[in-house]
Amino acid sequence: MSRPPRIRSSRLVTIGAVAATAGLLLAGCTPASGEPEPSESAAAPSPSAEAPSSSPAPSASASEAPEPDGTPVAFGCDEVLTLDEMYAYNPNFGRQDDWTPAAGSAQAEVVAEQGISCQWVNLTSGITIEVGVSQLSDGEIVDRHEALQASSTAVPTFGAEGYFTVVDGVGEAQVFSGPYRVVATSTAFVEPGEAEQIVRSAVDGLPAA
């Protein structure tokens, strides 16, 4: 065999190897085909429209205030206890004309029943006596009786259907005569006997219903 062909064959092998290597290098530098390009982030969904706040339903027109219990009395403090009657009880007491019962008190309840409440004050000690009178229906009288029977002591010496109790240091005498409710209150009334004269005088002065 002649030498030249072998040299030519060797060169061909070398050239082929170089070409193959170059092809591999080019293939490694080329990005993979079909790879998706990074897309922009999806737009945030627009906030849903807030549901319209429901406007308050129109309220029904306010109903008229209920009628107060009781019937307006047709007399004043002078008829409840006269000056002579109070003088006989204690000459040191004088009537207060600017008296307003404390909210939630028994006297305030009498006023709410369209009655009257009168106050006398001891000019020396400052002790007060309050006497209130209201005029109630038969049903209302029964309701007051039932409430007092559960919370107070019956006192027959008052000269009418009467009750007595002490609430927060204040003696409270209540008497019913016909349609009238008489309430006498004072820190001076520690027991029923100390309220008896005032209660009897107030009941005696009640007009005919």
Notable features of this structure?
single chain, 209 residues, alpha+beta, Protein Transport Mog1p, Chain A, 7-stranded antiparallel beta sheet, 34% helix, 21% strand, globular, disordered N terminus
- The low-pLDDT segments are 1-36, 38-63
Q: Strand sequence of the main sheet, in spatial order?
A: 1-2-3-7-6-5-4
Tell me the series of helices and strands, N- to C-terminal.
Answer: HHHEHEEHEEEEH
Radius of gyration: 52 Å
Q: Mean pLDDT score, rounded?
A: 77
The CATH architecture category of the domain at 77-204 equals: 3-Layer(aba) Sandwich
The profile of the biggest β sheet is: 7 strands, antiparallel
CATH class (first level) name of the domain at 77-204 = Alpha Beta
Supply the helix-strand structural class: alpha+beta
Strand content: 15-25%
Helix segment tally: 6
- Overall geometric form: globular
Tell me what you see in this structure.
This is Iron ABC transporter ATP-binding protein. It comes from Arenivirga flava. Residues 28-75 are annotated as: Disordered. Keywords: Signal. The chain has helices at residues 3-29, 77-80, 83-89, 106-112, 138-151, 193-204; strands at 93-96, 116-122, 128-135, 153-154, 161-167, 170-177, 180-186. The protein is an alpha+beta fold and 209 residues long. A hairpin with a 5-residue loop joins strand 2 and strand 3. The longest helix is centred in the N-terminal third of the chain and has 27 residues, at 3-29. The chain is globular and about 40 Å long.
